[in-house]
Known about the structure:
The chain is an alpha/beta fold. It folds into two domains: 100 residues, Urease, subunit C, domain 1 (Roll); 302 residues, TIM Barrel (Alpha-Beta Barrel). 30% of the residues lie in helices and 21% in strands. The strands form four sheets. Strands 1, 2, 3, 4, 5, 15, 18, 19 and 20 form a nine-stranded mixed beta sheet that branches. Strand 12, helix 8 and strand 13 form a beta-alpha-beta unit. The longest helix has 18 residues. The radius of gyration is 21 Å and the shape is globular. The mean pLDDT is 96.
Amino acid sequence: xxxxxxxxxxxxxxxxxxxxxxxxxxxxxxxxxxxxPGIRPPEDATDFTEIDASGLTLLPGVIDPQVHFRxxxxxxxxxxxxxxxxxARGGVTSFLEMPNTRPLTTNQQALDDKLQRAKQxxxxxxxxxxxxxGDNTPDLLAVNPTPGIKIFMGSMHGQLLVDKEAAxxxxxxxxxxxxxxxxxxxxxxxxxxxxxxxxxxxxxxxQIQDVTAALNATQLALKLSKKYQRRLHILHMSTGxxxxxxRQDKPSWxxxxxxxxxxxxxxxAYAQIGTLAQMNxxxxxxxxxxxxxxxxxxxxxDFIATDHAPHTLEExxxxxxxxxxxxxxxETSLALMLTQAMQGxxxxxxxxxxxxxxxxxxxxxxxxxxxAAGYDADLVLVDLxxxxxxxxxxxxxxxxxxxxxxxxxxxxxVTTIVGGQIAYNKGKLDTNVKGEALRFDARQ
Length: 444
């Protein structure tokens, strides 16, 4: 693959210290070579492209650390190509994908298959979790490369459901690879399903998979993590109770994430968009929104993920509880959060930290998450001055819908650069651009 040499001029550049520099960025051989005001084009440069970024803000590319891209086996919902196109349009330059595909990603063979598919299809960089089944411990210890082990403590059926404490303890006790948990108490969910059986209103979903179900599982994961001092990451934290638990008791080796939908949507959304608001863990109360926001601002929650989990509109049009849980998110996440920054809820620098820098640190992804010489040229130019609505017809995700349809957002990606290549520019994708497999450096 030929590398492109780029010179980005006149941008507002977010520096690693959180300050902004009005200046230029020189990119050579997939990496950032120089960040400074007024860079002159190198005299020896060939295949050289200049980008005039006047009026635009340059940020590190987003690393989305929790997505479900459905390939192999469920490509009618999404596939690696369509999902990576959606990433590029959303300013997401790297993703970490989950193991609940068909076949499940539970061994080296399945992981290698995904890596090979991604190499051929993905416009952006990629990594894939290995899924725990309760009896594949040798695979969990041996496979590479992977950001970590995914455990579904609840909201799952079949092999990937690991909900018994003894089985969980066996996984926590062996090895030192990061464990990422979907923390819901399956026994509580089963009990609540029986209690509320027959109710067709999708709003009941938030009561069936309630705050207690989430808190129970998070407490158990935290207990096992502390017992074995095992690196733990709590996926898509949804409740204020969990955030307050971590505020009181968060070992240095534990991290947590929150999704834009758990910050910006709540149970009121069921009345507005019905089953499109159904996800796992479910949307919570406005009070939970506020507590999660504060935990994010305070550093109790470390970063943001989308849990991009698309289903077709036909699937979502079924009657609850036959409707699948999940919603798309990679295309809207950065603009959603930057809109919050422009409204004063947080800063642009905080958004970039939560969506890029902190993710690279937590998963030990080298050379990502900052605009500095020597870092990979995974970048996004955004327009913080123009508002544009979320429109169904503009979405690149195969499912072609968003829970945020109609929302007026700013901070949309204008240009997305992956490894020094322009993957997306002013509404157009370059599908010849290909990302690379991410590395996860245990020594970092």
